[in-house]
Every structure is written in C-alpha cells, then in structure tokens.
Amino acid sequence: MQRPRMFWKRQKLRNSYCCLLKRTATTGVESLRDDGVPYLITTPIFYVNAAPHIGHLYTVMLADAACRWQRLKGQQVLFSVGTDEHGLKIQQAAESHNTSPQLYCDRVSAMFKDLFEKGNITYNEFIRTTENRHFEAVQTFWEILQNRGYIYKGQYEGWYSISDEAFLTDEEVQDTTSHDGKVQKVAVSSGQPVTWMKEENYIFRLSAFNQQLTSWLDAKVIQPAQFEPLVRSWVENLPDLSVSRQRQRLSWGIPVPGDSSQTIYVWLDALINYLTVAGYPSKFQHAYWPPACQVIGKDILRFHAVYWPAFLFAAGLSPPSKILCHSHWLVDGHKMSKSRGNVVDPMDRLERYTADGLRYFLLKEGAYTSDGNYSDARVVERINSDLVNSIGNLLNRVTAPSVNKQQYFPALDDITDLSKFLSQEDVEKYHSLAELADQISLLYDDYAFSRALDKLLTHIYWANGLVQAHAPWVLAKSSDAESQRHLKTILHVAMETLRICGILLQPVIPVLSDRMLTRLGVSQTDRGIADCKQNSLPILLGSQVLLLNRISASK
Ligand SMILES: Nc1ncnc2c1ncn2[C@@H]1O[C@H](COP(=O)(O)OP(=O)(O)OP(=O)(O)O)[C@@H](O)[C@H]1O
Prior knowledge:
Layout: H1 5-23, E1 39-42, E2 46-47, H2 54-72, E3 77-84, H3 88-96, H4 101-118, E4 125-128, H5 132-147, E5 151-161, E6 166-168, E7 173-177, E8 183-187, E9 195-204, H6 210-218, E10 222-223, H7 228-236, E11 241-242, E12 244-246, E13 255-256, E14 259-264, H8 266-271, H9 273-276, E15 293-297, H10 301-315, E16 323-326, E17 329-331, E18 334-335, H11 346-353, H12 355-364, E19 372-373, H13 376-399, E20 408-409, H14 418-421, H15 424-445, H16 449-470, H17 472-475, H18 481-505, H19 510-519, E21 539-540
Parallel strand pairs: 1-3, 1-15, 2-3, 3-4, 10-16, 15-16, 17-19
Antiparallel strand pairs: 5-6, 5-9, 7-8, 9-11, 12-14, 13-14, 17-18, 20-21
Helix pairs in contact: 3-4, 6-7, 11-12, 12-13, 13-16, 13-18, 15-16, 15-18, 16-18, 18-19
C-alpha cells in the first residue's frame, strides 16, 4: 500500500522534534518512540458536575473518526476517554444532591459512558480519576516532580475561579454589575465569578519551562495553527503555578504524598489521566508515549498546551505530538456548557438522528475552526439532503431489481468502451476516482473531516447526475445488446463511485458505510484503503437494504 504523503510529513515533524528533545536532554527527557509504533489518541476527561451535552459528544466523535481512520490505515491505536471526578465543584454538586461525592460521580460518570456506547465510540480505555490506578499514577508523578526539584512550598495569592478550576491574572478578571447593582469580579473568558485566594500550598516551577515550551511550539504541535499565537502569549509570561489546596477547603481529591493537609490541584490530577491509560507508572507502555494526538475544546487550551507539556518536561517525559483544538458549539450565541445549563441532550438526539446521522452532521458542519450554532433544523436538512437523498438515493437507483435485474455489480472488464457512452468530462471524472483515496487521506490525516466530506459528496452528486441523465431504468427495459452495454456502463460507474466513497466514509458513518458496502456485495476483507483502486471483478449484490429513513423535520 502506498503511504499517503501526509503520513511522511507527520513522521518528519516527529523526527525534527526528536532532535529538539536531544538538545534539551539536560532534564533527562526520554527519547521519542520509533516510527510506525502505536498511537495514543485521547479526548479530555469530562467533569462530572452535570450530565453530558452535544459539545462533549462532538469532541469524542471527532476523536473517534480520527481513530477509525488510523485503524483503517492499519495503525494500532489506543483511544482513551473518561471522566474527571475530583474538585470543589463535585464536592458542592454532591452536597446539593444530598449524596456522597463517590455516589454522585458513579451516577454521572455512567451517563457519559452510556452516551459513548450509544454514540458507537470505539474507545479502548474509559478512565475515571477516582480509580486506584489513577491515584497511584498521580502520587508517583507528584513524587517525581518533587524529587526533581520542580515543586516547592510557598504562599499563593491570586484570583481563582472555582467553576473553571483556574488561576487568573489581573488582566484576566473584570468587574461586572449584577441586577441588584452589586459589583462582582468575574473571569473575562468564562464570565464565572472569581475569589481572591491566599493560602500556603505547593507551587510548581512553571516559569522554568519557557524555553522548552517555545521549542515544542516551534514544531507546529497546535492545530489548527490559529490557536498558536494565543499559546505563545501565555508562554511568554509564565508565573509559577499553585498545585495544591488546603485539605480543609478541598477534601475531594488526591492527597499530596507525605502531607495529608494538602490536596493535589484538580488539573494536575486530571491531566495525568493520559499517563494512567498508558499504564503509568508500573505497567507503562512506552510505545504509546507521547500521545499522537490529544483532542480538546479551546476552553481548556491553556491546561493542555502550557501546563501539561510543562508538567511532562518536569517529569522527564515527552510532551504530546499534537494538540487538536476545536472551537465551540453555541446556543443563542453562548457556549453550550454544563454550568450555564444551555445544553442540547445528546442521548435524545442520538435517538432521533442515529449515531451515524448525528456524527455526520457534527463533522460536516463542525465547530472546528470557528464557533457554530447548533440547530436541529440544520441536522435534519443535512441528513436528508446528503445521506438520504444523495447517497441513499443513488444506492437505491443502481441496485433496484427493476433496473439491476441480475443483481450484480458489473466490472470494468465487462465494458468495452467507456467513452462510447460517456462524455469526455464524465470519463475523466470516473478516472479521477483512482486518486480519491490519496486526496481524502491528506484531509483525514489533517483532521479536515468537513472538507473531506465535501469532496466525497461532490463525487456522489456527480454520479447521481449521471444516472439521472442516462436513465438506466429506461435502458433496463430494452433487450438489445447496445442498451445492455450502456446500462452496465452506467451501473458500473455509479457503483464504483459508491464503493470507493463507501470505503472512505467508514471513519465518519461506519454503520451506513457497512450497509452500503454490504448491499454492493463488497466483502469485509475488501474495505481497506488499498481496495480503493479500480474494481475489475463482477460482484453479486448483497440483500436489499434501506440505508436510512428520511428524518421528519417536525420531530
Ligand atoms: N460548547 C461546546 N462545544 C464543543 N465542545 C465542548 C463544548 N462544551 C464542552 N465541550 C467539550 O468538553 C470539554 C470541557 O469539558 P467540561 O466537562 O468542562 O464541559 P463544560 O460543559 O464546558 O463544563 P462546565 O460548564 O462545567 O465548565 C471541552 O474542552 C470540549 O472538549
């Protein structure tokens, strides 16, 4: 199989970073893994302060499509998801529900897990930060940071947003006036209230990592690149970071090893989940490190693109190869969020639209490079126009027993002369199918799912137009040899388009692609990227199938 060009580009990037690590090896950074070894792809672990919403499902579906794509290329992938369960917000949420934090976490974590099952997410690891294996990882990691001299005890003073679990500088807070005229300080980015915090706790020497973080950013690890300048602005001004709380204020968390009066900062605790899933520390599978891609929303960019790599540098571990940062789904102009409560229920939408239908919409119209408003009307429109009317309709037309009487997929060998029945333009379009896999590979490797889907749909529209123009249902009624050859030609060209697009659509609409390929008679073993070359053998069709019901807008 010819490897797509982007694959090589990626390896080049990893290699250049490898050299970079050797230069900074004074802190004992472990070397990067060899080429061709397994990938670790992660999503954030989600905070269990309330039930999941469409935003969470979007992150996970985006990462799932990336994992499915890598697996389709033959890459071994470890895909991790999970829930973040410590912190003051959880402590408070449990209190308000009159339950214990653990029972509260069990209940909400199960909601996320159910969602991922129903969403057909192919994760390998579902990590919970209340698990013993994670407790061990966090305590070991802390001890390493401390032994290497990156943690010291000191007086922390500054603004803190409990809702965001984040420390903020003076520039990152502002005054707002509430309805009753009270002036309150809030975080500029989230609008959440902040309080002035002053206490003795443990502090991480974040300021020591300016150089290493800058070099890491030079390797173009932040995608899309539009977010890189923001990260650089944070890196330019790096104060040390408080990484513990007094236990009397925050008891729901992992204690600092050797000091039971302090609890480890929830973000340090949470970020270490990515190591826990790779077996750290006792069963650490080094082959999976560093993560090939960490998918996040832009709200948590600072934690993943500044704190996280700095923690890893301090521990002598490699930082992630890529941070894939997407934008937000909005509702009436505001970020959909648990705290705000302006959420769209993903379970209900999976029920209405199916996992493939919803995933198709989210990746096609996705809030990837810019924020996007979620709209049910748009979901219905997209599914009906692209999946039902275009793909489903084309499949029905070329496999209908009244048109395709022998129920088979004619091969190119059966057809004497394409140009006898097709225009020059159509012949060229047909031959361009041979390059489609390479073109889609480049886009999928770059996580540009929306552009890839646009491209695939262009071929489907073209094939539908061809079928419409050549009316195979009329040709099927004639028994003369010329009409039959003409019919075969049209059926072959349309089915080839469906077959190749079906193979390439597997990462995005796995269930519908399977239905489509099965109906076309394509066996499970013939659905790899290498099979996107032209089909030269006739195939018997599978049994009849309805790809997807039309969705009613009134639902
Ligand atoms: N509106 C959104 N659009 C896209 N992704 C989102 C959205 N909201 C949350 N996410 C995903 O969830 C991650 C944040 O998880 P979190 O549990 O903090 O959700 P949240 O709804 O922002 O919660 P909270 O309101 O309590 O801060 C984001 O980084 C992103 O991956």
